[in-house]
Structure formats: C-alpha cells, structure tokens
Design goal:
Blueprint (H helix, E strand, L loop, with lengths): L17 E5 L8 E4 L5 E4 L4 E2 L2 E2 H13 L3 E6 L4 H4 L2 H8 L3 E4 L7 H12 L3 E4 L5 E4 L2 E7 L2 H4 L11 E6 L2 E5 L5 H11 L7 E3 L11 H7 L3 E4 L12 H9 L3 E4 H4 L2 E5 L4 E5 L2 E4 L8
Parallel strand pairs: 3-6, 6-7, 7-8, 12-13, 13-14, 14-15
Antiparallel strand pairs: 1-2, 1-16, 2-3, 4-5, 9-10, 10-11, 11-12, 16-17, 17-18
Length: 287
C-alpha cells in the first residue's frame, strides 16, 4: 500500500500568542513576526552572495514549513545584508505591501527587490513617522526615518526604519542598523515611545550604536543581536554587551543561539533558543 507523504500545513494555526523570530542568517538581519492568526510580517530578508541569498535558503523554507501567508515586507535600509534575500521572498510569497525607508541609491539586491515588487503588483509605501500597519491583533508603528532628517545623510544606516511591534502591553523595538546619530534623533523626537520589553539591538551590536542614553530609554528585558559567527567586523562590541548587562537585559545572539523565538500572549514573554524554552522575568519598574 502506498503511503502518502506528509506535507507541511497549508493553513496557519491560530492562537492567542504572537511570535518574533530572529532568524540566524549569519551577518545580516531577517526578522519574522507571526500574528495571533498565523500570518507573517517580514522585516529585512538577510544577505546575498554570489549564486544565492538568505531569502531562498533560510527565510522561505522557514515560513513554508510553518504555513501561513506573508502579509507585509518591511525594509530597514538597502544594504545587502538586509535586502539580499528580499527579491526571492517577494517573488515567492507576494505580500500585499512593501514598506521602505526609501533612502536614495542602494545595492543591486535593493534594486532587484523593487523590480520584484513592481512585477508582482506589491504596493510600495515609503515609511514616515506615524505610519502603522495593523494585521490581526498586531500593530507595527514606525517612528523613523523622517525625510527632513534623511535628506542630508550619506549613510543608509542612519536612515534605518524604526518599528515598534505591539501586542497587548508587550512591545518589540526593531531598529535595523541605526547608529548613535539616529538614536539621538529618536531621543529628541520619540523618547516616550522607545520603551520596549524586547530590543533587536542596532547594527549587529556595533559600538557605533546602543548609546547609554538610548538603552536607558528602551530599558529592555531581552536584547537580541543578529550577528554572524566570527564576522570580520568584530560584532558584537564588548562595550555594547557590557552596556546591555548594566541595564539588566538578557542578551541572546544568533551566532551563539541560532534562531531566537520570542512568544507573548500580550502580557507574558517566553523565549525559545538553543532547544530550550523559558519565561522572562519582567521588571515592571522598567516600563
């Protein structure tokens, strides 16, 4: 008797929990938000290299194994370690919208992502402070970049999309490769909106990011660093690791832990990494 192969589910499961998946894509960023109804939002899509990209090798297989549609793609900035896998994902998953800081110029991978969006009829939106996406029970609010701020910049890192993902009272702050100049802009314009239980640490833990003032304003319980093992930049910086330790954040690194999953029911937070699961003790005095 022939046995039919077991296929991955075509429809996503529903629950009362939202998940943040910080994928291990080496030296780069690819972050998935899974809503309480099993839909996806992708923020950045990992690097590309000669003959391949993280969209094809990591992001797509990860989503397809778990089922569910991709509703929106958000790009922090057009460096190849963040946009390299985007065209592959956009062509395969065809989300409704592409949200972009729209920094002038960019890599071949960035241009390919825009071409894929145009070809597939994906709505392109320029990110402005105050814009937001609502998908199921999840809100994604954008704090930056502001076009008046970015017009004089030469470094796309400083024009990174800054997104606050909210579910219930739990907040995830995702800052792309923002460096201290953009952190200072955020402190001047959105200080009261920066607090978050979970921080995706800026620029792979570089010493050019994560100022003491910025970390004090965010005051996260959990800090996740997306970084490649043995990378040529020396990321993450020991200074940044010490600064995160001083504010009492639990630090997780993709070069050590692999993909990190943060789950929340809107109040409690659970981490899954390195084959283990544990609940995060929340310090209510922080927020």
């Amino acid at each position: 008797m022939a046995i039919a192969p077991v296929l991955p589910p075509l429809t996503p499961s529903r629950s009362d929990r939202v998940e943040l998946h910080v994928l291990d894509v080496g030296q780069g960023d690819a972050i998935l938000v899974r809503t309480n109804r099993g839909h996806w939002i992708l923020l950045d899509a990992g690097p590309a290299w000669r003959g391949g990209d993280a969209g094809r090798t990591t992001v797509l297989p990860y989503m397809l194994r778990r089922g569910g549609s991709l509703e929106a793609f958000v790009l922090s900035h057009p460096h190849t370690d963040h946009v390299g896998g985007a065209a592959s994902v956009l062509n395969a998953m065809r989300p409704h919208t592409y949200w972009d800081a729209a920094f002038a110029g960019g890599s071949d991978a960035y241009i390919a992502s825009l071409a894929a969006a145009r070809q597939d009829g994906i709505e392109w939106h320029r990110v402005h402070p105050g814009d937001s996406i609502q998908i199921d029970g999840v809100s994604v609010s954008f704090l930056a970049p502001d076009s008046a701020w970015t017009v004089g910049l030469k470094d796309p890192n400083l024009a990174s999309t800054i997104a606050v993902v909210r579910y219930g009272v739990v907040r995830f702050l995702l800052v792309g490769d923002a460096e201290r100049a953009e952190e200072d802009w955020l402190l001047a314009h959105h200080r009261d909106e920066l607090h978050a239980q979970v921080l995706k640490v800026g620029h792979h833990g570089s010493s050019t990011s994560s100022s003491d003032a910025f970390l004090a304003a965010v005051h996260p319980d959990v800090a996740v660093i997306s970084v490649g093992a043995g990378n040529m930049y020396g990321h993450p910086s020991n200074d940044v690791l010490h600064a995160l330790s001083r504010i009492g954040a639990e630090v997780l690194r993709t070069d050590e832990a692999g993909t990190v999953i943060v789950r929340t029911d809107g109040v409690h937070i659970e981490i899954e990494a390195k084959g283990d699961k544990w609940e995060v003790a929340h310090d209510s005095s922080k927020h």
